[in-house]
Design a protein that fits this description.
Layout (H helix, E strand, L loop, with lengths): L6 H13 L10 E6 L2 E7 L9 H4 L2 H4 L16 H11 L8 E6 L3 H10 L3 E6 L4 H9 L3 E4 L7
Parallel strand pairs: 3-4, 4-5
Antiparallel strand pairs: 1-2, 1-3
Length: 153
C-alpha cells in the first residue's frame, strides 16, 4: 500500500495542479487557502476575467524589462494569492485564521493583503526576491516556512 502524503505534502501538490491553470508567461504560481484541513479557495496568477491573456498581448514586464521582484504594479495579471483572496470574498468565505499554501513565497503586495485578511500561516515552495515581504510577515506574527518536500511527523 502506498504511503499517504502528509497534509502539507497533499496541499503543496495541489498548488502545483492549480498553477497549471496560470496564463503568466514568466512564472506559473498556484495558491490555496486552507482551514481545518479544508480547502477554502484557490488561485493562480493571470489576467483578470475577460481580459486578453498575455500569451496574445505579450508580457508587459518583459517588454519593459522589469526584473523579478520589482514594480509589481507593472503587470496585466493578478497574483495567485490575490486571486485566492478574491475567490473567497466573492463566495462569502471567511479566510481569517487560514493557512496559505503557495508554490512561491508572497511578494510584499500579497503579504500586506494576507496580513489584513487574517491569514495565520504561509507555507511556500520556491523563494521570491522580496525581503520586505518576509519582514512584514514576521512583524505581523504570521508563521511562514519553506516547504522542503520532506514528510513531517
Amino acid at each position: 500500500m502506498q504511503e499517504r502524503p502528509s497534509w502539507d505534502e497533499y496541499f503543496m501538490q495541489i498548488t502545483q495542479l492549480v498553477s497549471s491553470r496560470s496564463t503568466c508567461l514568466r512564472r506559473q504560481v498556484g495558491a490555496l487557502l486552507v482551514k481545518d484541513k479544508n480547502i477554502l479557495a484557490t488561485g493562480y496568477n493571470g489576467v483578470p476575467r475577460g481580459i486578453t491573456h498575455c500569451e496574445v498581448t505579450g508580457c508587459l514586464r518583459e517588454q519593459l524589462k522589469v526584473p523579478s521582484g520589482e514594480r509589481h504594479e507593472l503587470c496585466r495579471g493578478l497574483h495567485a494569492e490575490q486571486n485566492a483572496i478574491i475567490q473567497a470574498a466573492s463566495h462569502g468565505v471567511n479566510i481569517f485564521g487560514s493557512t496559505l499554501y503557495c508554490t512561491d513565497s508572497p511578494c510584499i503586495i500579497c503579504s500586506k493583503m494576507l496580513i489584513n485578511a487574517g491569514v495565520k500561516e504561509i507555507i511556500y515552495g520556491r523563494g521570491y526576491p522580496d525581503e520586505l515581504s518576509l519582514e512584514m510577515l514576521s512583524e505581523a506574527g504570521i508563521i511562514y516556512q519553506h516547504f522542503n518536500g520532506e514528510t513531517q511527523p
